[in-house]
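Why this split exists: single-chain examples teach little about how molecules sit against one another. For that reason, every record in the complexes split bundles all components of an assembly together and asks for one structure covering all of them. Below is a record exactly as it appears in the raw files.
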Amino acid sequence: MARTLQEVDVVIVGMGWSGGIIANELAAAGLTVVGLERGGPRSTAEDFAVPRIRDELQYGVRLGLMQDVRRDTLTVRNAIGQEALPMRRMSSFQPGDGVGGSGVHWNGLSWRWGDMEFRIRSMYEERYGKRFIPADMPLQDWGVDYAELEPYFEKFERTAGVSGQAGNLGTRLVAGGNPYEPPRRSDYPLPPLHTTLSGDLFGAAASAAGYQPFRVPAANASRAYTNLHGIAMGACQYCGFCDKFGCEANAKGSPHNTVIAAAQRHAGFHLRTHARVTRVATDSAGKLATGVHFIDMVSGEELFQPAAIVVLAAYALNNTHLLLTSGICQPYDPVAQTGLVGKNYCYNTGARAQLFFSDKQFNPFMGAGGTSVAIDDFNANWHFDRTGPDFIGGHVVLAGTSNGRPIEYHPTPPGTPRWGPAWKEAVATWYQRTMSIGALASVMPNRYNYLDLDPTYRDAAGAPMLRLTFDYKANEHRLSTHAAGIIDQLGKSMGPAHMTAPAPRTGPYSVVGYQGTHNTGGTIMGSHPGESVVNKFGQVWQVPNLFIAGGSIFPHNSAYNPTATIGALAFMAADAIRLRYLKQPGRLL
Amino acid sequence: MPDPQPRRRFLRDTLIGAAAGAGLAGTPPLEAAAAQVQAEPPAYTFLTPAEAGFVEALVDHMVPADRHSPQGTAIGINVYFDRALGGNWGQGDRLYTQGPWKQGLPGQGYQLALVPAELFRIGAQALEAHLQRTYGKAYAQLPDDQKEAVLHALEKNTIAFDSGIRPSQFFALLYQLVMEGLFADPAYGGNAGKAGWKLIGFPGVIATHAVNIVKFKNRPYPFTPVSIADAS
């Protein structure tokens, strides 16, 4: 029989960005908040100390800061009718573990999503007609708009220390910024990061081609910064150990050293690590959450944390898994088209080319997450006519240098042998002389891309594993093909000695090879319960004291990285809880 | 079973000669660094003698000595194999190995029930059996062109293994270990004298490039590579 702890106002499952933001906001408002984190604690001084953090083998290759698939993994297949098998080695996506979650090891790219995303169905129907949207693409408006989120994007940027150059300061366009970004009432809190040679060359080529390059906004502080909550952040050291690593300078905005550190100043906040939540408990009618069951992984003891409000912030995949294993709301069945939990899983696609220049010195080891130069002409640019290329969504094309870590990065031109004397000559020649151009592209929902419970494999706690059924569809094939064409055009215009072909992704989705940790969907938001699990505050329609935060509430995934939008929605949800929900607990907002 | 000691002494003597003309500007002479790290033969705690003979020949073939670096055994790539396979990663850290086990599609990735150490061991035995049948020799005894042909055949699955693993899976593991042994921090047993980093021009764990990133844009950045040990 599980031991029951003292009831609190709020229990939050997962201490990443969304959980950390909500924890701090509600603890600051005087509520008693328990934050349950599956993994261990994180401290910059201890865990990210130089030189031990600069260990490419341990963190870059063996993924030492990520979820351990030996304990936690999922099964994957492309389509119904195939047997899903466990993802035995982490590769395609790399969810974090421990306090801070994926916010510890991200690159920091921070974009404001606009109404092209939030009102996607209405806008595409209006411009392109209803028939432009495929029948098996359950595209929908989010039930929120940019104007509501704008102040919360600002809050996130001032919490994470985002560096950038505004392009649209309240309908006044500013040179050097992104002309397609949604309008902002203030500039970024920090000036943009330095660019690298690769970004400069790409930017020049993009301008010459008539596009509008700009420096990407990123939560890598370009100089020392005191954030919204009085947390001191350091300046980015361009060390080349950004993605997959923790930042020893506290320059990369991460939850453990910002919102969670801030939450810990409040007496009402209690952080509990090594706490594996197994189930959300509800009352006998299933209409109210009563708390969460978890295992203290240090002692092995089963415990129950009662709470008036339950927040799931455990990463998109885990949020969906918890709802399914807790039996809350109806699971999605893609054949019968009933239920909603697990629906609208999305990801990213893209394309990439490597360019080799005999006469350039790229110093690839000097970099940060956010040194890239990008063009948004094929994404947030609503004027870009999708009729010809025939896709819904968009892609951001960009070039920069985040790192040159040698185990994974030792480029050679096409046709080079993979070992031996010719290989050695080539790696010695080209390591300094290579750059990449990449495109990050959206993925629209599909009837048959979804999450459910696996019939065969069980997790460490004995519950059925999460099963992912996902493949790129015709829409994404056309999108990736278009992106490859733009990369090819721009790359060739730069006159490299060699270039790899930016092949579009038209084959089946594979879990092998890193493609981005932007898993979205499963507990999607919307304007009414018939089409969504939660409302725009992440409040579960059927269980009004249960809130969900994170990428699982996204009904589709944009080309833009998702974190700033996750953060903004979390800030908005926290405000709704403390200012409105608490006045009428148990009522839908 | 040939005595491995004369081979190691031979390698030491060879590498000093090969490295003599290979010094890079601004770095200590290769022969001094390499000779220093090769003063003692590696203490293998995982590789059996036959496996050691195979790995040493493999890494010297894939990473031969040239003007950029000494050969694989002088860089300690063989030592890296031993440490990685015998250590926690080789024994299955961060790998889900529970059943049931199905072959799966290529897009479902690695699906064997084997940890890396087992895959290596079974693959090495299968390769040895094939080479004995085909050439009557171990890998280390083959002439260079046959060593090369064997690697291509493993990579492309044109060898038949008498066990349930595919040669290309075994080869992928070997290749990964060679790259890691060449380029990982020297703390892991390979990249001796930072020879792998010197090969390409990677400065290691330099604390900061905040000034360098502007000052050295499109210009060579002069450095002496720094390892975790150097910075500790």
